[in-house]
Every structure is written in structure tokens, then in C-alpha cells.
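Title: Prediction job returns without error message
Component: structure pipeline
Severity: low
Priority: P3
Assignee: unassigned

Description:
Job completed but the reporter wants confirmation the result is attached to the right record. Sequence as submitted:
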Amino acid sequence: MPAIELEAAGVTVATPAGERVILEPTTLSLTERRIGIVGPNGSGKSTLARMVNGLVAATTGRVVVDGLDVAREGAAVRRRVGFCFTDPAAQLVMPTCVEDVELSLRRIERSASARRQRALGVLERFGLADHAEISVHALSGGQKQLLALAGVLATEPSVVVADEPTTLLDLANTRKVADVLFGLDQQLLLVTHDLDLARRCDRVLVVDDAGVRYDGEPGAAVDFYVASVEDRIEGRVGP
């Protein structure tokens, strides 16, 4: 498995009131095949995940993926790290399904005809072969998320970061997308509110109030997170 080494002295953003911390100083070595990240909305979990391919930069510190420094070798890192967003509309930019996958392949397959054949093969793998010439806007929510994943995986990254990929899906499509993600050979970094999916991981980080509050075995991590939410609801801890 690739190794993700994250040493951030902190991540801040500028606000009218001054700098605001969105991720506290954090040091992590992520080598497991499936790593889950859970936590409340606005806790910093997406910030943590997006640092892995440079979508968010550490204010100070460094992030290394498979020996490559994200800040200095960003292009090479992004070839190794595929990113899937919550809303597939953020990724589906071409008119038809096959064209969208072809767009992902443009840097690694120069021949247009070979690129088309490879894209069709990717669509078949994801059960979308019959939708190759269909508008991306005509797809269901689950089909859109599968197509977004297909575009990411077409380039064969070594790491897949999925930021709440099932949040907008119904139960049936959640299961389809989850089965694809957990069937991958690649390392998976999964940000999720679905605690059942978190329990399927090999390791889970609980992120809250801009910090990693628990890091360990999935069952214990989920229990810790649930207990912290219950404490907050009952007023035993601050917001």
C-alpha cells in the first residue's frame, strides 16, 4: 500500500476577524488499505482529506504521498491520487458519459480511437456501457456518482480519496457505490457520515473541532464518535 505521511503544523484561513484554524497540528502515517474519516459537519475532516492531493495546503508542515511531496511535486501526486467529491456534478463536465471518461484519459492515451475503446471498457466495468452516449444530466444520482468514480479510476490512481460519496444517495445506490469503493485494489481514504461504512474500514480517524480526537480500530472509533455526539446533545461538553 502507498504511504501517506502528513505533518501539518496547522492549517488556517483568513477571515475578517483574522486567521482561523481549520486543522490543528497533526501528524499521521496512513498505510492501511481502507481508512475512514468521520466527524461532524465543519469539523475539519474534508480539510484533512483534501491535503492528500493538494486541494488544501498546510500553512506549515508537509504532506508526502508515496514518497512525493504534495507541495513540491503536486502534478505527480495528483496522478497517483484520485479524488471523488460528494456531488458528482462537480466532476461531470462533458456532454455524454463516454466523453466524460475520455476526458480523464486524455493525458495517458494519445490516440482518440484507443481512448474511446478504453473509455467504453471502463463504462462496462461500472455497469454503464448502455449509457455511453447518454447525457450525463439524464443519469440518476447513483449513476452519476458511479460515472464520477469511473472517471477517477480510469487513470488507475494508487490512492482514492472519496469525500462523502454516498451522502446524496438512497440506500440502494449507497450500497452500489460502497461495494465499488470497498472492492478497489487501491488505498481508500473515505470521508463519511455513514457509520456502517466507517466500520468496514481498517482504521478510522475521528475529527472534531479541527483536530483528530481518536485514531484507531473502526468499532472503537465509531463508538467514541457516537458517545461524543451524545455528550454534546445532552450538554455534557461544549459545542
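Comment from assignee: result matches the submitted record. The CA atoms of residues 123 and 137 lie 16 Å apart.
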